[in-house]
């Protein structure tokens, strides 16, 4: 559980990988991409209540041919799209408020996702830009919902939550991030943090006030600069679009993991445990062994991709008015 400081919520940029912008290249069908998933959530060894919530979902849209006089050789054996949605939310606010905030944020997100026309779509730069615009609008609606709930019930005063989500459709992967929960990508024995913590300590490091290696132990490492709740809709998430390779593993976690377990150890545990269910449990066990001072939630997904996939981690800033992609000098984020 993190806490918000009394400062304005920042605005964040959309990042896009070069390979994701190459939409003219062939890609495997969405049905050729499968994820094996493990997930755990634990109160920890210190707190009495688990204010973390998570969701793992497979989304499918398919066409079932009921009647036709077309020859069978002219028809595909299966027509459809499969995708995966992962969400981790770490609530804050004391008493039951944090638990309510994280639960409400995920349930509202799911309702908005289900009513969206763009949850399964043909991916290109224009459509992705529209998709991210809809996500931003949805997050503002969630923030207003939390703000109104907090104002209407004294027991929920000051509640808020982080929200970090990953949505994959085929090999296209979209990251949505507010707060200090994290998304990691483990590829070819290298662990890369795909999100940047929205904390005062991280902002101080970005501005050069403290060295990057001091962030992990800084007194302001848990003071959030961006989260859902209390902003009356004035929030905007970090948004990222990249592509998945065969064998990639994705890790979403609340800060109860990375506060206790350093990135080097996280990478070693993933290297020893290719099964995502075993890896998730081993990561949780390590966090508890090192003290378990906060709630711990971990989602691990291992992707199997049939056909072509050649993602890169280099990121570029997505210009909101043109199709140009100037090189980002500081990505992937530390």
How is this structure best described in words?
By secondary structure, this protein is α+β, with helices and mostly antiparallel strands. It has a single domain, classed as PPM-type phosphatase domain (Phosphatase 2c, domain 1). The chain contains seven helices and 13 strands. Strands 1, 3, 4, 5, 6, 7, 10 and 13 form an eight-stranded mixed sheet that branches. A five-stranded antiparallel sheet has the order 2-12-11-8-9. A hairpin with a 2-residue loop joins strand 8 and strand 9. Helix 2 packs antiparallel against helix 3 and helix 6 runs antiparallel to helix 7. The radius of gyration is 20 Å and the shape is globular. The protein starts with 13 loop residues before the first strand and ends in a 17-residue tail after the last strand.
What is the structure about, briefly put?
The protein contains seven helices and 13 strands. With 334 residues, it is α+β, with helices and mostly antiparallel strands. It has one domain: PPM-type phosphatase domain (Phosphatase 2c, domain 1, 4-Layer Sandwich), CATH 3.60.40.10.
CATH class descriptor: Alpha Beta
Intertermini distance: 21 Å
Discrete helix count = 7
Mean pLDDT: 82
Helix content: 25-40%
Structural class: alpha+beta
- Taking all Cα atoms into account, the compactness measure Rg is 20 Å
The domain tally reads: 1
**Poorly predicted segments:** 4-12, 308-334
User: What is the correct CATH architecture?
Assistant: 4-Layer Sandwich
Going by CATH, what is the homologous superfamily?
A: PPM-type phosphatase domain
